Amino acid sequence: MSSFDNTHITALTGLINKAVQDVIAEYGAIGQAIPSLDTLEPGPFQVPEEMPARLTKAIQIIEAACAQLCYSIAPPGHVMINKSLEHEEPACLLVVTEARIPDLLLNKPEGVPASELASRAGLDASKLTRVLRLLATKHCFTEVKPGVFANNRLSMKLLSSDLVSSMVAMFADESLKASAYFNDTLTDPSEMDGGIPFRRATGYSFFDYYQTPQGLKKGERFAKGMIGWGDVTGKSLVAKAYPWTSQPADITICDVGGGHGNIIMGLMKAHPHIKTVLQDQPQVIEMAHKFWAEEHPEAIEKERIKFVPFDFFKDAPIEGCDFYYICGVLHDWPDAECELILKNVRKAMKPSSRVIIHDTVIRDVVRSTYDHLKASSDKSVQVDVAPEPLLPNYGVGCIRTYGLDMALMHLLNAQARTLPEYIELGEKSGLRFEKLYEAGETDLVEFTPF
Of 3.30.428.10, 3.40.50.1390, 1.10.10.10, 3.40.1160.10, which CATH number belongs to 86-158? Predict the structure, then answer.
């Protein structure tokens, strides 16, 4: 590339222009314009499973290309200082979420003075004004007049009734607090915290913290936030990503550590020929039974679901199921604990059983990795690769995946994993890798027993 070659910039703008036209076309196909930021209505495409594939891809390209374009043309010092200040935004998001500022602005299109919001929330007026002004500058809230703020399309996701707000608060609270101690745990290890930043910050392990008086309400928030996280990342795409329709009637899926079973419930509603055994800790199973009685009583009445308490570290799940589905569990634990979970599952499997690990699978940022996959005759791994000059993993277009990996490190000393790391875990547990199915921001990794 010569010093006068700007093709990398024009290529990025070309990708953006093409993707924008794809977005316009998809909205036009349903007779709607693309919502502006000031629009308070949620719009037609709120969760990944509702989005046409072309729209999903266009959004990812726009996110990736716009960020790469900005980083390419802005002075590097500007970029790096901006990045170092990014922690201030979640700190502000926690303030407005905990104070329920979006709730106070509901049905107030003309806006409310920050001084009045502060009075109602019990906050300092000057400081809240500055918080809202920063967020409005990042397009969350609108400053309609000096010091007067209103909701917009983004701040509506911070309403207390929206489960996404619970996950935003968790990342802005527990996760941000832990990340402040990350460098300390790396450079000054201590047996007291076991290398876990969250433990150094609070004195407790992550899940134990939620049993303390100061952590109980945050634990309830975390449980809600996990559902919101699933909505954002498309966990319900499991119903579309795997060929369930080709499975015979009355196959049984054991949902290992399935919590309330909200993901498996969506799968069963989409594919009524499936039966489920939901397994988790006894107290979780008790709450799950109530949840299903309210949300899908038909499954209980027709005996399409069983609730069986167990501890996946101590017990094997129920024997002889056709599938063992493990969703969002393994990323909470280091390798040794994951091996124990998988070995217990392996004990319960019959020769024809399959394990489906539904979790985040980290991609490399090196294009040669993907070139090797393309050249391979192995059809078990077919992954989407971003067009050049984007990073092959879509860069900022998939940043939540890598942010989650960091949060898991800070909170739990756990991790999201690459496909080779999952394959290695499986092999150590008596499981053979079969295929990877892409499912939104997560993937389904299929195994059979050795």
Answer: 1.10.10.10
